[in-house]
Amino acid sequence: MQPVPIEKVKGIGAARVQQLQKLDIHTVEDLLCHLPRDYHDLTQLYTIDQMRVSVPWFGKLEIVSEPSLSYPRRSMNIVRAKAADDTGTVALIWYNQPYIRQQLEQGKTYFVYGRPDFRFGQVRLLNPMIETPEHHPGARLLPVYKLTRGLSQGALRKHIQQSLDQFGALIDEELPRTLRERYHLYAKRDAYELAHFPPSRQVRDEAVRTLSFTELLLLRTYLAAQREGARAVSIEKMNPVVPEDYYKLLNFVPTGAQMRVINTIAEDLQTDRPMSRLVQGDVGSGKTAVAFYALYAAVKNGRQAALMAPTELLAMQHYEAAQEMFTPLGIKVTLVRAGMKAAEKRAVLEDIALGRSQIVIGTHALLEQKVQFEKLGIVVADEQHRFGVRQRARLLQKGEGVHALFLSATPIPRTLSMILYGDLDISILDELPPGRKMVQTRIVPPQKREAMYDFVVGKVQDGQQAYVVCPMIEAEDEEDNRSVEQVYNELRRKYPAVAVGLLHGKMKQSEKDKLMQDFVQNQVQVLVSTTVIEVGVNVPNATVMVLEQADRFGLAQLHQLRGRVGRGEQQSWCFLSTEGIDNERLRTICMTEDGFAIAQADLQQRGPGALLGTEQHGRVDLHVSLMLGDGRLLEEVMQAFDWLHEPEQEVLYTQVVQAAQSRYAQALEQIALN
Ligand code: ADP
Ligand code: MG
């Protein structure tokens, strides 16, 4: 269906539109794709004596005290009530939700959901969710959604039901019936309805499977068609540039894997088809040296080369490294920065347009229309998982007939990469430069946290440096005290002799750059930050990585973050500070440093959705966040694609290609590049 703006749904007004926008919901389809993150099972209730600290609990409670509202501080108010069932009593506490008091009545029973904790001698539920089931007669599983301020579960449920009633009939069936029957998929409208309001867990799983399957198959088909299209273009061949000549420019001996991949790229460049290749290599595997060969080969052939990085910081690092290598050869390297003065920018753009700049480095702002090249031969996109399918397509469109090389430090299992990168050839850098020591990785329980920081400070006094990374804190965790600022203040107070720096996403770019520069020069010894440092930063003198609340990070993210250390001669350490005693992810990360093994474990433990999750991949290109529990889905999608691609199914294949193209064409138009 054509995108229907969300305000067309009855009952959604201007204020609601704004709230929904915060959740990235703009169209009816976005709303339907906002799948529940959980369900409250009205058929499976727990009692108070079954509460376990921190384990989500759902049950039916009677309010046994008059709910009270107090204002202990100016910026804080608290609603309290006592609740009970046959097995005990529990305190209910809400921070800054004064309206809850009116919703509760002493003597009445409610369904209550929350995570119990135990403080001041009592069992408490902090900010629990209250369900009044008379609003949902006959429901067995109530959907629970990610919300935003001002939007309640009840309101969101109502809007979703209304969208289905009003627009359900317009939802396109993207997959032909024969295919749906063969692979046991629901009709799409039904799949939406059953995913939001399922009669049972099993039906819900099948409905979500339908949505995920459809999404992945369309993506696979779209990328396959893209690839066929790209292969049909013929371009001028490049002359061979002997890798051995390039190796002389390096101040190290390339690994066998680097040589193998460089040879493959050299071959790609000598054909009359544009290269579109992905190089996957773990953090520290030396992708930069591979990328620089491609830049060098293009320049040797009289073409320009562009290198794009996901952050200003990384672009800067690449720029410095490229200057060091190429300036002595008389090759002009240019950095395109955000926030250049108008005159400077004009001069830079002119250099590029006239071909005076041979190697151009920047963030993906390089994709902007304003940047025109004289004779672009190759584009390299570093840390490409931050770019995503749509931007990749955009890039390939912009430089039609241009070679493209993508670098990714996120190793992902083969099945997943065949779907996500179906338009690319894939090379793997599966060897680390020699002499790397294992990063010693330890789980640190709360009682050892102090000793850990003493150890960190000891290393710092020896001249080494450390990162301390805290997870993003969501608004609901009012009581959480491990946010970056708190950790930062704590460390400054306890270790006044140490230069501690604070880096977070809300800081201005110039402030971030300044701070990183200070860290690179060891003016800052301990860098406390949110996950903004995750990508690509290279400071070999940093030997300690502390991850606060490590259980909040995904496996791939833990792996990426650990990859920031272990880059120099010294023994490096990674500490996973956590209150959770038993965490499979943390144990996995302690056991191995092999990114592919970690990715495979992630796939098994959390399913493909986790690997594609926004935290690790920037904006996900898929409409439905995939929530299925295992990797079998991927195999099934691959099988379905292969079946569809057989000559006998040509008619079906063409239909699916069209559906896929219209979906992604829309998506491509919608993407706003900054
Ligand atoms: P990544 O794959 O994470 O982008 P980099 O290209 O930043 O890795 O390389 C990490 C570090 O390893 C850099 O300091 C680089 O100079 C060094 N390096 C790369 N290849 C080799 C090699 N073959 N031998 C020794 N050091 C290398
Ligand atoms: Mg890199």
User: Which ligands appear in the coordinates?
Assistant: adenosine-5'-diphosphate, magnesium ion
The helix-and-strand class reads alpha/beta
Overall form: globular
> What level of helicity do the residues show?
25-40%
- Report the portion of residues in β strands: 15-25%
Mind describing the biggest β-sheet?
Answer: 8 strands, mixed
| Average of pLDDT | 86
- What are the segments in which pLDDT stays under 50 over at least 5 consecutive residues? 474-481, 613-629, 669-674
Gyration radius, to the nearest Å?
A: 27 Å
How many helices? The count is 24
Give me the count of strands.
23
Query: Cα distance, first to last residue?
Result: 27 Å
How is this structure best described in words?
The chain is of the alpha/beta class and 674 residues long. The chain contains 24 helices and 23 strands. The chain is globular, with a radius of gyration of 27 Å. The two termini are 27 Å apart. The model is unreliable at 474-481, 613-629 and 669-674 (pLDDT under 50). The site of magnesium ion has 4 residues, from α10.
